[in-house]
Amino acid sequence: MGNPLADELSSSRRAKPCALVIFGATGDLTRRKLVPALMGLAQDGLLPTGFAVVGFARRAFEGPAFVDELRDGVKQHSRGRGEETLTAMQEAFSYVQAEYDDPAGYQKLKAHLEEIDKARGTQGNRVFYLATPPSAYSTILEHLRASGLSTEAGGRFARVIVEKPFGRDLPSARALNEQVAAGFKERQVFRIDHYLGKETVQNILVLRFANGIFEPLWNEKFIDHVQITVAEAIGVEGRGAYFEEAGIIRDMIQNHLLQVLTLVAMDPPAALGADAVRDEKVKVLRAIRSLTPDEVAETTVRGQYTAGFQAGQEVPGYHDELGVAKDSKVETFAAVKLQIENWRWGGTPFFLRSAKRMPRRVTEVAIHFKSPPHRLFAATGCGNLDQNILLVRIQPDEGVSIRFGSKVPGPDYRIRDVRMDFRYGMAFGGSTADAYERLLLDAIVGDSTLFARRDEVEEAWRIVDAIVSGWAAKGIEPERYEAGTWGPDLADQLLGDGREWRRP
């Protein structure tokens, strides 16, 4: 039998030979995510025959020390025989040491890549991955342009993968987009959001558009509201300095949650091509108005965790985290009510919620359907049944479930909520492929469907900037909530009309 993960990722698309250049090759992202993902692809035979990985960073290495640096991360974070795979293909790895702002370093990289073309058969094709702090993006992009490394010629391709955060507000995102556009055409640019590589996120499109039973109900006539939750049990985990600049709204809602929202709310694309799908996603974002400060005060909730207990262990409050100011007003919880003002969704609210120090780690989309128009069973004492819910679990326990009412066996009409459950692990066996495996393969192949387009990023920032500006204009400070709870009490009032947040 073949490897199910290989079957899952493979298709008629075949990757052409290329060299993957990782800027920030000595960083945590490379060690924990990128190289383990490459090992997974290699095990499944999905990397091209002519393939090479070039690390580019400031730290000096000698001989095989770069591969040794990666080995521990592969051992801890890769699936299957990752360490053996790294050993088998260590000749494909090399390293260029240089400062990001040194033009000579890029000429050195250019010459090194030409040597790799001859030795490894990479045919002049390049994929550049910016796995550095965002502060280095502009410098690297400018030097890639100036050195000619971003230029495509003679059938060769050059692509750039940019990690989030893509800017910290709309003006900075636009400026970064202009910087990217100076050296790369839009089709060469892959703005990565690892949430879109998750199997269950992609399954939202299949669930909706490959099944006749869901799409006819997917509108304001039948759906009461939608809840999208990304909850994390951890705190800021040593990233206090970064979080002080971002907050949960920039770190999670601007990208992950709005991306998931677009997949839930978009109209059917004309085809599965990258631009056809992304056109529909952008239409959703454009249908969300920028909130006024008064609307922000009514339709959003900010929170910040205090000391509490997580899994029976006492944990510190946000103000006691490393790198956090003692008087910080940064939110670690945000809940937002958004309206998509179009014919499909007019009047159906979408509630987005993300936070640190929640009782458990969970990412899910809960579609709450409207109750029947007539309470036929009210006389039997069953008049207040819960709404039907279609639940898409993104992590953990990836799958889909439906909650509906069923008669309890017996002579009387007693009704109880039951659930039909689909889990990926049980249905297909094993675990799903890592999101970075899928996205790296797509970038190497040149498929940008699961990557954010320029206008998509800017529309998302427009929405978030209005909320941040509204908080500042109205002087809205974070409500306190104890670590290990589901957030501020005020968040429960946000839903209105007797609705409640789903407790995963």
The gist of it:
The chain is α/β, with parallel strands linked by helices and 504 residues long. It folds into 2 domains: 160 residues, NAD(P)-binding Rossmann-like Domain (Rossmann fold, 3-Layer(aba) Sandwich); 300 residues, Dihydrodipicolinate Reductase, domain 2.
Structure description:
By secondary structure, the chain is an alpha/beta fold. The chain has 2 domains: 4-163, NAD(P)-binding Rossmann-like Domain (Rossmann fold), CATH 3.40.50; 196-495, Dihydrodipicolinate Reductase, domain 2 (2-Layer Sandwich). The protein contains 15 helices and 17 strands. It has helices at 4-9, 28-43, 65-77, 82-88, 103-120, 137-146, 170-183, 199-209, 240-265, 274-286, 293-299, 424-428, 435-445, 454-474, 490-495; strands at 18-23, 51-57, 93-97, 126-130, 158-162, 189-191, 223-231, 300-306, 308-310, 313-315, 333-339, 349-355, 362-369, 389-395, 399-407, 415-423, 479-482. The protein has a 9-stranded mixed beta sheet with strand order 16-15-14-13-7-12-11-8-17. Helix 2 packs across helix 13, helix 6 (137-146) packs parallel to helix 7 (170-183) and helix 9 (240-265) packs across helix 10. The radius of gyration is 24 Å and the shape is globular. The model is unreliable at 1-12 (pLDDT under 50).
